[in-house]
Design a protein that fits this description.
The complex is a heterodimer of chains A (286) and B (389).
Chain A lengths: L7 H6 L11 E12 L2 E12 L3 E6 L5 H8 L7 E6 L2 E2 L5 H9 L1 E4 L11 H11 L5 H14 L16 H12 L6 E5 L7 H18 L2 E5 L3 H7 L2 E6 L2 E6 L1 H6 L3 H7 L2 H20 L1
Parallel strand pairs in A: 3-8, 3-9, 6-7, 7-8
Antiparallel strand pairs in A: 1-2, 1-4, 4-5, 9-10
Helix pairs in contact in A: 4-5, 4-6, 5-6, 7-8, 8-11
Chain B lengths: L19 E5 L8 E8 L1 H4 L4 H12 L6 E3 L3 E4 L1 H10 L7 E3 L2 H15 L12 H35 L6 H12 L3 H25 L6 H39 L2 H7 L4 H39 L4 H11 L2 H27 L5 H29 L6
Parallel strand pairs in B: 2-3, 2-4, 3-5
Antiparallel strand pairs in B: 1-2
Helix pairs in contact in B: 3-4, 5-10, 6-10, 7-8, 7-10, 8-10, 8-11, 8-12, 8-13, 10-12, 12-13
Amino acid sequence: MDNDKLKPKRRQRLNRPPEGDVGDIVVQIQGLWTKFGRTVVHQDLNLDIHAGEILSIVGGSGTGKTVLLRQMLGLETPTKGTVRVFGADVSTAQAEQLQQMRNHWGMLFQEGALYSALSVFDNIALPLRELRALPEDVIYDAVMLKMDMVGLGLEHANKMPADLSGGMVKRAALARALALEPQLLFLDEPTAGLDPDLSDAFVDLIQALHRELKLTVVMVTHDLDTLFALSSRIAVLAEKHVIAIGPTRDVLEVDHPFIKQFFLGERGQRALEVLDERDAEMDTEE
Amino acid sequence: MAAEPFLFYTGAMPIENAPTLITQPPDAGQAQSAVAGGIWQVHTLSEKGVIKGVNATLHGLKNQASVAWDLSQIARMDHIGAQMFWNAWGKKRPAQLILAPQQEDLFRRIEEAGKKEPPRTRAQRVNMVMRLGFALLVFFEHLRGFIKLIGQVMQDTWRFIKRPQAGPWREISANIYHAGFQALGITAIVGFLIGVVLSYLSAQQLRMFGGDMYLVNILGMSVIRELGPLLAAILVAGRSGSSITAQLGVMRVTEELDAMLVMGISHGFRLILPKVLALAISMPLLVVWTDSMALIGGMVSAKIELGLSGRYFLQKLPAAVPLANYVIGLLKGVTFGMLIALVSCHFGLRIKPNTESLGKGTTTSVVTAITVVILADAVFAIVFNGVGF
């Protein structure tokens, strides 16, 4: 869906980066097929992700949301079709090129995936140290800055991941994902396993970081509150491809049983009310 | 859609994009100035050779209050680039500084973060005496845990004897298969080769004083009483001991152990007892197997080296090695098997849910199991001092 066709008022609501590079396609998926044995998960799936947006991927269980995310990261190879990130095909890129790409994206895994043998500080410092160029004092300050950014108290720097609570693990993992100041951030269920307060705080955090660092965010989530609060666009996976993509409101208007059931159930209604309130607030502010 | 999107990583970084820092010596009436340009982002900074030059220049300007800084020519900058300047400025804004508007945010952020000091953690000083104390405490803690485990296994055994029909038969059978049957190949190869080597070396020595026929005594005695059980035990400790520890450790990591407790399934009865019993059953059998393989190896070697026929070897064997030795060997097998299972379960249950602990626990488990087996072997040697000669 082209953003230009939207009504002007709606355009303002979108989480736009201040810079004018919206429209550049960061991730481009074309004619993607994924098969596991005989099961077809994705069938001729197309998806474009633009610079500066927060795109959420939703879908029922087993529709291959996480698989799609992993394919964008090059962790899995699609059966057919291409996944281009920053303009280069992930599955055929040369090792050096791939490494460059990896330095420009960050991934927040669902369970954090912190290295359990390293302290929080060393976890966040690892991507910086891997560059083998930066002096240690700059790394130290950069890690402290990242910890401060994600709201992780500096007193946790020397703790081991096993000693952290679920919310702190997520924050530390986010700090690690942001260590190299990526342009593209992947989030797999960022608020799963967090209590509502923490989850709200996490949403605010990602919003703030998105504004501050001008990130492009690709997110897989089940949590409707997170979804409505963060997404500038939503892509709905069902029937093996993207059945709807666009700003939240537009997706909600699509007539499809999955969308009706997913968004317009009781939980969806509650989350929508919050969305309405937020929009109303924004309108009065304007 | 842009036709040429984000191909920033292709080829070498163009010269005009590299971070630059040009300093000008103080002119008449003007202070020394430093003008930065290019892209000050982590990726350009970490390009080969870039950081060295930048660092050298920054170092030269460090803490010089009079320098006039101009960062407004920088095309793009991120927090790490900004941090480099910040550190060179001695963590405060210099008096003369020109920033582009979008750089204000970066430095404000860094300034804020810098205000928060990480709490100093006092380094714990550990001297030799303390280290010895800690080691002893850990040792006693392990000893206590181990004794507790033995008690637990005894209780579970009693429970098993009282109601054998409700016992963990399936687990016992599976463990016998894994620890016993699947170890047949490796024990056979190692046993055979050791037999060959032992026979070959002894034959050379014996031939010097014409004691060729005593080869059977030497080989039979050492293999059946000592080497067979020890070899089998060391192999099983390496094979099954490590797998038991790793299995229990992974179950701890994935919370399976907790899930079992929640369902009221006892670890001792369903995990530990079957392993202990299975090894107690399969180890003596493996000992017999290793013994025979080692003797066959010795026989083959004796035939080649000394020309002793297989028939003579077998006829001589019962006379050379009294039956008591054989029984001692089997007894050792049972004991070693149980010890290996107990030690590896002990360490397996102590693994903490992280990868490092898993690796360390498995190593410690195997090393301890082998050590304990050799210790037990020494005890056997003392206890059965005069038996079987």
